[in-house]
Specification:
The radius of gyration is 27 Å and the shape is globular. By secondary structure, it is an alpha+beta fold. Strand 14 and strand 15 form a beta hairpin. The protein folds into three domains: 167 residues, Jelly Rolls, CATH 2.60.120.620; 105 residues, Alpha-Beta Plaits (2-Layer Sandwich); 128 residues, no CATH class. The chain has a seven-stranded antiparallel beta sheet. The chain has ten helices and 17 strands. It starts with 5 loop residues before the first strand and ends with a helix.
Length: 423
Amino acid sequence: MRQPVIEVIEDLATPPLHMAAWATCCGAGWRFGHASHAGVESQFWKRDLESDEAFDAIWKLAQPRCEALAGGPLRVLRVYANGHTYGLGGAVHRDADRAGAFTLLYYPNPEWKQEWDGETVYYDEGEEVALAVRVRPNRAVFFDSRIPHVGRPPSRSCSALRVTVAWKLELSGEAVDAEVPQEDKSPEAAEKIYTHLIEPKVVLAAVHERLEQLARSISIPGVRPGQAPIAERYGETARQDVIKRLAKETVEAKTPRGSIVTTTHVTLEDSGALRVEIRATHLPDLPDPTPQGPFLRLRVNAETAELAGIQIDEASALTASHLKTQVLDWLNNAYAFPVPSSMVEKEAEAIARLAGGGIDEYRALAQRRIRLGLLFAEIARRRRIQSMSPAELENLVVESLLVSASVEERDASPAELRELAAD
């Protein structure tokens, strides 16, 4: 069995490219709130580096060596930089769980002293330290993304930002030949399209396998087991079963973490290849929400409800909805990422059909609903919240957010209850 690849590469870039890369890292674009993986409290700085000339040039220099180590051509999925200061370290994690995924980690800092620490530590299957790589200017590490590792924070004596640049790479395999993600060029940059092509011979082999399964399980009177004309009778059924299975597996394996799939379009081409187009909203870099407060929880009792002319159950539902609305307002304001216009238009049309009126007057409401729906899906994924219905999921997410939020409580007045009922 082949051992996971890991190799340290010294002097990756030419001196001018190294300096150009560091100049980019010193520029604007950093944001705080990234973590090694969901559920980790320790957060640090991050910035995207897609289409940056200096880092594109560095990858071209590194590509031949990396492909020789990987054993085949590589495609770049993402390029970004992480920034750590004293006290802001990462957590042990794997960059990917699948074979054929690799990472090129680069240290662009022009200076790094030994006493500043900040090494990258790699672990073996027994969770023992297998390799510790010191930060060194213009050094890189190419490794199998399944290897667990962690970036240690700089020491107290270090006043610099420890920067690592990561190229997330994938081997261009024969079974599923995925193209580089095609991003929409519209302002709705949160939406991305991923197109994957499954080779004809892979589809054909899967169909033959499915037909063999059917031949063993289907009994036709007067025909010996295994001798039934399965291909003639069940060929189309087998093909459709295979298309559904391969499409599902592709979506599960190829959609990046943090992306919410909105639509999937599957096409069986004349060549026999299966093209799977995934349209997804990309939300991997949203910081985990820490709701700001205080939020107001209104208590209600039978006497107050009676004075307001409202049943106690209705009054309790109104105050619960009031608290929930405060959290939704905060989420909508805290996360101002763009949402796909196609989803907004469809939602606005649905609201207009129910409420009457023109689509234009409901676009703002539709945008809010879409944004919150995507946020609920992403927060639920990170916090492992599962539900049978969207409404229940929404309530569970809100409850999980309120656990760490500042909430003030007081008794509701009859006037407040009447106002809530009127709304």
